[in-house]
């Protein structure tokens, strides 16, 4: 008789991001069961009720919630969104101290409830928080990682597709480094319907000249600031991208995604958490792929690593 696969997903923090992840998982049929955890008992009960009231219209999923961390017990995947949120004009790195302390306390408590779980941090600044969380426990390699630049890469691909007047599924491109101001768009490996960005022309004119590349890169970096200024938080796209990462974990998909892990020597980078194309499977975040970088991209990646390392050191990590 086949062993029943564990498809329980717990979401920690029922703010706008945690709620969006729960909703995306529900409508996509990502998980067999969802457990919602938040210290605000009234809020978590309300979200559980609201989601359950739509259960007729989505794939079957058991939804529970509590202000007791025990609700997360025996999870396959735990997603952490808890922490102070980014205010208008505030950089992700400015959030660091409070959210790092939260991660250092919370990660051991979550693994106590679910020793075999894979934990994904979405809390910002995700790279520094991921580094602190990874160092706070003795978990299996790749079992603690961050959502990284998966969303940034989606923003990048969307903007390229829009300019090329093609469906986003035809665009392949990735953002690496910090999930934040020092992130690096890898233009040298962008492919649009199989055509390198530098060779993509319309009526004999290059579509992605230096100016348009700079404009798209800036829009990706500033996207969150624009959304936060307009509605207070980014939540819907991070909900969808998180659900996609969870599916790669639960279904052992060996999907290459730019998630944030503590690096161990790729491109000469060590002892800092940042995003690079990484194989995501049931074992968590695994092998990092060494994509060919041009000189400027490599320099930018090292600069991004240095920025993150200085923040880690300022926090005593």
UniProtKB/TrEMBL annotation:
Membrane-crossing residue ranges in chain numbering: none
Catalytic activity from the UniProt record: (S)-lactate + NAD(+) = pyruvate + NADH + H(+)
Molecular function terms from GO: L-lactate dehydrogenase (NAD+) activity
Broad EC category: oxidoreductase
UniProt-listed Enzyme Commission number(s): 1.1.1.27
InterPro entries for the chain: L-lactate/malate_DH (IPR001557), L-lactate_DH (IPR011304), L-lactate_DH_AS (IPR018177), Lactate/malate_DH_C (IPR022383), Lactate/malate_DH_N (IPR001236), Lactate_DH/Glyco_Ohase_4_C (IPR015955), NAD(P)-bd_dom_sf (IPR036291)
GO cellular component: cytoplasm
Pathway of action: Fermentation; pyruvate fermentation to lactate; (S)-lactate from pyruvate: step 1/1
Keyword field: NAD, Oxidoreductase
Gene3D superfamilies per record: Lactate dehydrogenase/glycoside hydrolase, family 4, C-terminal, NAD(P)-binding Rossmann-like Domain
One record GO biological process: glycolytic process
Family affiliation: Belongs to the LDH/MDH superfamily. LDH family.
PANTHER family named among the record's database cross-references: L-2-HYDROXYCARBOXYLATE DEHYDROGENASE (NAD(P)(+)), L-LACTATE DEHYDROGENASE
Identification of the protein by name: L-lactate dehydrogenase
Organism of this sequence: Mycolicibacterium duvalii
Lineage, opening ranks: Bacteria, Bacillati, Actinomycetota, Actinomycetes, Mycobacteriales
Underlying gene: ldh
């Amino acid at each position: 008789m086949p062993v029943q696969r564990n498809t329980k997903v717990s979401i920690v923090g029922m703010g706008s991001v945690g709620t969006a992840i729960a909703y995306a998982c529900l409508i996509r049929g990502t998980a067999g069961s969802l457990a919602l955890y938040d210290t605000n008992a009234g809020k978590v009960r309300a979200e559980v009720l609201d989601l359950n009231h739509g259960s007729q219209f989505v794939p079957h999923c058991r939804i529970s919630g509590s202000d007791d961390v025990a609700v997360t017990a025996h999870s396959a995947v735990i997603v952490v969104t808890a922490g102070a949120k980014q205010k208008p004009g505030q950089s992700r790195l400015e959030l660091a101290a409070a959210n790092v302390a939260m991660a250092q306390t919370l990660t051991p408590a979550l693994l106590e409830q679910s020793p075999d779980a894979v934990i994904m941090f979405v809390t910002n600044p995700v790279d520094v928080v991921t580094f602190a969380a990874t160092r706070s426990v003795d978990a299996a390699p790749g079992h603690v990682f961050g959502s990284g630049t998966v969303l940034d890469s989606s923003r990048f691909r969307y903007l390229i597709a829009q300019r090329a007047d093609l469906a986003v599924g035809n665009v392949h491109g990735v953002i690496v480094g910090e999930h934040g101001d020092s992130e690096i768009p890898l233009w040298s490996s962008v492919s649009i319907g199989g055509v390198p960005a530098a060779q993509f022309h319309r009526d004999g004119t290059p579509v992605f000249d230096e100016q348009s590349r700079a404009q798209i890169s800036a829009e990706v970096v500033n996207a969150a600031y624009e959304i936060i200024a307009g509605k207070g938080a980014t939540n819907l796209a991070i909900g969808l991208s998180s659900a996609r990462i969870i599916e790669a974990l639960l279904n052992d998909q060996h999907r290459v995604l730019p998630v944030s892990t503590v690096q161990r020597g790729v491109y000469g980078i060590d002892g800092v958490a940042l995003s690079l194309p990484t194989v995501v499977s049931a074992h968590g975040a695994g092998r990092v792929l060494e994509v060919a970088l041009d000189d400027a991209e490599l320099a930018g990646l090292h600069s991004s690593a240095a920025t993150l390392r200085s923040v880690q050191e300022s926090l005593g990590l």
